[in-house]
Design brief:
Distance between the termini: 30 Å
Structural class: alpha/beta
Strand order of the largest sheet: 3-2-1-4-5-7-8-10
Largest sheet: 8 strands, mixed
Helix content: 25-40%
Order of helices and strands: EHEHEEHEEHEEHEHE
Shape: globular
Oligomer: single chain
Strand content: 15-25%
Number of strands: 10
Length: 262
């Protein structure tokens, strides 16, 4: 089996690269690079001490869960094409011909895809890992907003088919986590849940046998953008007492849920 992954360069993205390489014959990776110091260096997020301190917590729990992995090139089945964030939309398709002949295409954490690359991926029935539970939360920083709204039961990941829209493709399954030591670890552990859920379905050959469902747009609670995430919101978030003691209601919210156990 050949897999093509479009992703980024944080520890969680490197972990996914290593994980998929163990579960396929050949892995092609288009990897966009962004700063690994959000809040400190200019990026999608404002540079400030508040933003920096917030992302220090995020990074701590990301490294705790994913063990700060490096790409494992001992496994010779990885072909890597490095890119700067945003360059993926300008890539010469002829130069990545081998990357477009896979059996499975996965998108996780890239810049917004457009132009010819997204048209090709849609035809290939690429799946997108959206960190947030669609249709409830769409856009950016979705699990943050679910926690901010006191909706911890709506923290998780949505694995759906890629479209030209944002997080609106047919839902294949949801991924959730039982790890709830604190909001930061809980949110990051749902990323692991998404990865393990995909791995399970790849190994069981069930990823393409699940029946995808259309998203009910009437259920959308928030459509967030980067500008919504600011110092003032972070201050309010850090003062919240979020109750993480709840039970998942599998019948009302989730599509074929994969739950990462403690």
């Amino acid at each position: 089996m050949k897999i093509t992954l479009l992703t980024s360069n944080m520890p969680r993205h490197n972990y996914l690269i290593n994980l998929l390489s163990k579960n396929c014959d050949k892995l092609y990776v288009l990897q966009e690079s962004r700063t690994i110091f959000p809040g400190i260096r200019e990026s999608n997020y404002k540079v400030s001490s508040i933003m920096s301190n917030y992302f220090k917590k995020v990074n701590f729990y990301e490294n705790k869960i994913f063990k700060n992995p490096k790409l494992n090139f001992k496994n010779q089945n990885i072909s890597l094409y490095p890119l700067i964030m945003g360059d993926i939309n300008f890539i010469d398709i002829n130069k990545i011909n081998n990357f477009l002949k896979s059996d499975l295409f996965i998108v996780f954490g890239t810049s917004f895809l457009k132009n010819k690359i997204v048209e090709i991926l849609i035809r290939k029935k690429a799946i997108n890992i959206h960190m947030g539970l669609s249709p409830f939360y769409k856009g950016t920083d979705c699990n943050f907003w679910a926690l901010y709204d006191n909706n911890p039961h709506l923290v998780g990941a949505t694995i759906h088919y890629l479209t030209k829209g944002i997080d609106d493709g047919k839902i294949i399954f949801h991924a959730l986590s039982e790890h709830r030591t604190n909001p930061f670890e809980y949110s990051m552990s749902t990323v692991m849940a998404a990865f393990k859920g995909i791995e399970k379905h790849i190994n069981n050959s069930t990823l393409k046998t699940l029946s995808p469902i259309n998203q009910n747009k009437d259920l959308t609670i928030k459509y967030s953008t980067k500008k919504d995430f600011n110092d003032n919101i972070i201050k309010k978030f850090m003062k919240k007492n979020i109750n993480l003691k709840f039970k998942f209601d599998k019948n009302n919210f989730y599509k074929d849920p994969f739950i990462l156990k403690k």
